[in-house]
Amino acid sequence: MTPQNISLLIAELRRDEGVRYDEYLDSKGIPTTGCGHNLRVRPLPAGWTFPLTDPQVDQLLSGDLGSTFAGLDADIQWWKQLDDVRQRVLANMAYNLGVSGLMTFHNMLGATQRGAYAVAAAAMRASAWYSEVGQRAVRLCEAMETGVMPA
User: Fold this and answer.
1) C-alpha angle with apex 123: 119 to 127, nearest 5 degrees?
2) Which residues pair with residue 24 across a beta bridge?
3) What is the pTM of this model?
4) Residue 52 forms part of a structural domain
5) Which CATH number fits the domain that encloses residue 66?
6) Residue 92 resides in a domain
7) How far is CA 36 from its chain centroid?
């Protein structure tokens, strides 16, 4: 992803995940902080305490994005060939679901790889994920289908 596309993704993730400076339980009961940072997977670095600072939230987000990109690179190498908006759709979903969760979207991924974006968006809409994440899913489906990220 280009630096500009990463900046857009970060803004979208801050909107979609929200930013919290204290620990909270997410919708699945997982201890979380920052911008959807899973504390079970990656505890805070030694010496960090709540509330977090903006630079700490940014550091967690940067590390989580690095892991997300590495997973996407390993599991669906073709994702980098997509246009910027559809790269962000897959990265946003992988950030939210984990790359392993994204990999369960077989029909959507196959359609995306073929460039059948309306079919990919329909597969996204038919998933349980769509009803679980609300407006985020609506935006990402529209972006997948049209190539334009709605506000």
Assistant:
1) 170
2) 32
3) 0.94
4) yes
5) 1.10.530.40
6) yes
7) 10
Q: Is residue 151 part of a domain?
A: no
User: Which residue from 147, 126, 124 is spatially nearest to 136, judged by alpha carbons?
Assistant: 124
Structure tokens at 43: 């505890």
Cα separation, 147 vs 89, whole angstroms: 10
Q: CA 102 to CA 105: how far, in whole Å?
A: 6
pLDDT in tens, 105-133: 999 999 999 999 999 999 999 999 999 99
Nearest Cα to Cα of residue 41 among 27, 50, 31: 31
Work out the burial of residue 4: count CB atoms within 10 Å of its CB; fewer than 13 is exposed, 13-18 middle, 19 or more buried. exposed
Condensed to tens digits (0 to 9), the pLDDT of residues 59-71 reads 999 999 999 999 9
How far is the CA of 32 from the CAs of 1, 9, 15, 25, 95, in angstroms?
26, 20, 16, 6, 13
Closest C-alpha among 117, 97, 119, 131 to residue 17: 97
Please state the domain count of the chain: 1
